[in-house]
Amino acid sequence: MPLTPPAEPVISGHNRETTEDPELKMNWASFYAVISGVNRHSTGIGRIWISVLFIFRILVLVVAAESVWGDEKSGFTCNTQQPGCNSVCYDHFFPISHIRLWALQLILVSTPALLVAMHVAHRRHVDKRLYKLSGRTNPKDLEQIKTQKMKITGALWWTYVISLLFRIVLEVIFMYLFYMIYPGYKMIRLVKCDSYPCPNTVDCFVSRPTEKTVFTVFMLTASGVCILLNIGEVVFLVGKACSKHLHTAGDSTMGAWIQQKLCSF
Amino acid sequence: MQHGCPDDVEYFHANNLTADTRMSWPVLYAQIVGANRHSTSLGKVWLSVLFIFRVMVLVVAAESVWGDEQSDFTCNTLQPGCENVCYDQFFPVSHIRLWCLQLVFVSTPALLVAMYVAYRNHSDKKRLLQGSGRAGFRSNKDPDEDLETLKRRRLPIAGALWWTYACSLVFRLLFEGGFMYALYVVYDGFQMPRLVQCDQWPCPNLVDCFISRPTEKTIFTVFMATASSICMVLNMAELAYLVAKAVTRSLGGQKERKTCRKSSRERMQNKTNQKLFVST
């Protein structure tokens, strides 16, 4: 079995100047390879969503945000020499870091797209079997099945819409979690802490609060844009399906009734 | 190529490969994906869950949470050596290393399947080449084309391959369960405490030691334990599916054999009837 390293990703070339761990970028890049494979079967809005996700969220996270939060613990200073007070106060005010929350959000939000990829793979498998049963074993036909673009109709339409709804729900859940853990989305400069072993109440100072606020607002805006794109895509798909249904149901009583009503206005 | 020799570094730099691409998660991924061609759909879902929710989360998020685990482990004492000793007592093996080992052990049974498939392909190739040699130039098909279809074909999961596959699933389940149990036993549950009290020599009396980022560590431990349980459920479902498939196949085969025997008996009866008819 040959050991083949993965193809050089687009993002990693940009990041080589930083002191980032190359294996880290390799994993976001291999994630990109997996998700962008779904791109072929998405609508136009879906492709815009994938670009916004990778350029304005993942790339910004890896290239900029991680270095802003890099010294979040070492730069968190409390006005005391009591050992352990720093650790305890940091843990009390930052149960989970923004960076980890964003990384989890991006991973969870991208994975419903894999539902669509699995459905497409299943459909292709079924088509191949039908071709073989009907006697068409020409390798060109089988290759064509692999490369043809699937139309978003029938069961695939439902899978696609369900994946979009999951995406929207997960994005909203994470935005709500952010609001719960860090009220107001703003990073404060000073926190007051009195957990054991800190003697009395102690002032603790957060490192780079303004820069963190700027990036938090940026990532939330990008998240909001992604939610809007997903809602737009759902509306587009539902509208397309409705109009197709109306066209094909021209002879049925329901379609005729609707057409009659529309004509009467 | 021998791993670990100093010449390897120059070889790899000369070939524009960094030391990280040599033996890292993407290399393991490439190996496992190759073996994945012969797995069921549940197996493919399992592989995605493994690499996206476990390996990716480990590399992208968890490793930075545990990055400062020893440097930020602080004890309420100035006694040199106390922090080292207490850290070593409470963290015999770090979570990150346990998870890395777990992921490596859990991924490797898939290579059993890959080895078996390679062995099958090798023996079929030998048979094909011997067959084409004996037939000489009488066959119309190009032997290279046959070899290519041999390489690309997908073997059905039956016979010895079924047993290999089922064994690999059982090993996967054992490794997952074993590592989860080990983590639970070593750290007394999945929760990371904020404060531990230590009285190992050279610490004077009982000393408070504070762990860095305990809440974040607890969140990630629970996340990884959940992902591990999901993988175990997928493996059990896959095993149940394989067993059910094998049972239905054997039942179907028995029915066929019964109808075959019945029809051959009928044919014998018809023949004797015909003979009798003809003779009368």
From TrEMBL, chain B:
<dbReference type="GO" id="GO:0007267">
    <property type="term" value="P:cell-cell signaling"/>
</dbReference>
<keyword id="KW-0965">Cell junction</keyword>
<dbReference type="InterPro" id="IPR019570">
    <property type="entry name" value="Connexin_CCC"/>
</dbReference>
<dbReference type="InterPro" id="IPR038359">
    <property type="entry name" value="Connexin_N_sf"/>
</dbReference>
<feature type="domain" description="Connexin N-terminal">
    <location>
        <begin position="64"/>
        <end position="97"/>
    </location>
</feature>
<dbReference type="GO" id="GO:1990349">
    <property type="term" value="P:gap junction-mediated intercellular transport"/>
</dbReference>
<feature type="transmembrane region" description="Helical">
    <location>
        <begin position="96"/>
        <end position="119"/>
    </location>
</feature>
<feature type="transmembrane region" description="Helical">
    <location>
        <begin position="45"/>
        <end position="62"/>
    </location>
</feature>
<keyword id="KW-1003">Cell membrane</keyword>
<dbReference type="InterPro" id="IPR013092">
    <property type="entry name" value="Connexin_N"/>
</dbReference>
<dbReference type="Pfam" id="PF00029">
    <property type="entry name" value="Connexin"/>
</dbReference>
<keyword id="KW-0472">Membrane</keyword>
<keyword id="KW-1133">Transmembrane helix</keyword>
<keyword id="KW-0303">Gap junction</keyword>
<comment type="subunit">
    <text>A connexon is composed of a hexamer of connexins.</text>
</comment>
<dbReference type="GO" id="GO:0007605">
    <property type="term" value="P:sensory perception of sound"/>
</dbReference>
<dbReference type="InterPro" id="IPR017990">
    <property type="entry name" value="Connexin_CS"/>
</dbReference>
<protein>
    <recommendedName>
        <fullName>Gap junction protein</fullName>
    </recommendedName>
</protein>
<feature type="domain" description="Connexin cysteine-rich">
    <location>
        <begin position="175"/>
        <end position="242"/>
    </location>
</feature>
<feature type="transmembrane region" description="Helical">
    <location>
        <begin position="219"/>
        <end position="244"/>
    </location>
</feature>
<dbReference type="GO" id="GO:0005922">
    <property type="term" value="C:connexin complex"/>
</dbReference>
<dbReference type="InterPro" id="IPR000500">
    <property type="entry name" value="Connexin"/>
</dbReference>
<feature type="transmembrane region" description="Helical">
    <location>
        <begin position="160"/>
        <end position="187"/>
    </location>
</feature>
<dbReference type="GO" id="GO:0005243">
    <property type="term" value="F:gap junction channel activity"/>
</dbReference>
<keyword id="KW-0812">Transmembrane</keyword>
<comment type="similarity">
    <text>Belongs to the connexin family.</text>
</comment>
<comment type="function">
    <text>One gap junction consists of a cluster of closely packed pairs of transmembrane channels, the connexons, through which materials of low MW diffuse from one cell to a neighboring cell.</text>
</comment>
<keyword id="KW-1009">Hearing</keyword>
